[in-house]
Amino acid sequence: MSNDVVDRSKRRFLTAVTSGVGAVGVVFAATPFVLSMMPSARAKAAGAPVEADISKLEVGQLLTVEWRGKPVWILRRSPDMLKALPNLDKQLADPASKVVDQQPTYAQNPTRSVKPELLVVVGICTHLGCSPVKKLEPGSDAILGHDWPGGFFCPCHGSKFDLAGRVYKNVPAPTNLVVPPYSYLSDTRILIGVDQKGAA
Question: What's the Rg (C-alpha) of the chain?
């Protein structure tokens, strides 16, 4: 075997090994840069958009996801729940959702939502920041009375909200529950934190 043949095979072997080591080095060097482009837990808490899968959300069920460190409720309302909403207008402080900063313009409607059957609200009372309890079923309630139509009740100071997150009159909470910016990625996925126009 000639020295020339041996040198070529060594050269090919060394070239292959060096290329492999170089490729691994590039991956290790690039990984921190790629990871830095993904939102951290702190960035998510500060307001990065959050996706929610609503494919398994049944009628009458409520899903809670976290956005900006706050609970966001997604409620799939039944036809009966929607039918009852206009009957409450006289009992509500802001039935037409006229307080502008409580919801995006696309949710300033009788159902306070993009799709009537799906309510998306921040689950924080607008009085002092307590989290209301879900009292979704209509009917007799030891605290709320026999004619409770269903909604949310804040146990801290007694504020009540209907199934559109609208606040009742004569309770401590001054405004409706906040509707965050959101948009639909598909029929089964919601993006909370960014609306249809990309506004946060």
Answer: 27
- Could you please report the per-residue DSSP string of 3-56? HHHHHHHHHHHHHHHHHHHHHHHHHHHHHHHHHHHSPPHHHHHHT--EEEE-TT
Residues 109 and 164 sit within 8 Å (Cβ to Cβ): no
Residue 80 DSSP code: H
End-to-end CA distance of the chain: 71
pLDDT, one tens digit per residue, over 103-144 is 999 999 999 999 999 999 999 999 988 889 888 888 767 677
Cα torsion angle, 191, 195, 198, 200, sign: negative
Contact 77, 54 (CB under 8 A): no
Within 13 Å, how many C-alpha atoms sit on residue 93's CB side? 18
Question: Strand pairing of 139-141 and 160-161?
Answer: unpaired
> Residue 139 has what DSSP assignment?
E
Check if the beta carbon of residue 120 is closer than 8 Å to that of residue 74: yes
Q: What is the model's pTM? A: 0.73
Tokens 């590039």 belong to residue: 26
d(CA 119, CA 163): 8
Write down the CATH superfamily of domain 44-192.
Answer: Rieske [2Fe-2S] iron-sulphur domain (2.102.10.10)
